[in-house]
Amino acid sequence: MLSTVSKQLRNHPALIPLFIFIGGGATMSMMYLARLALRNPDVSWDRKNNPEPWNKLGPNDQYKFYAVNTNYDKLEKNRPDY
Fold first, then answer.
1. Which letter, b or e, does each residue of 34-59 get, where b requires 16 or more Cβ atoms within 10 Å of its Cβ?
2. To pair with 61 at 20 to 30 A between CA atoms, which of 4, 5, 26, 81?
């Protein structure tokens, strides 16, 4: 299959950007899904030792991918301890 793709790319060089952008988009989407699975406090992989990981987050922990106007260094805790 790889030889067929390389032959097509040699015959039709206009397809090269298509492969680059589709490959880059697939790579970025997989990286984002991996980040959500590993870094999101709503996901609990170890239920025995850490059943509720969202309770261990401090007010200064940034878990969002992109925060527009929020400075996490100056936030204070406004919730009770359980």
1. eeeeeeeeeeeeeeeeeeebeeeeee
2. 26
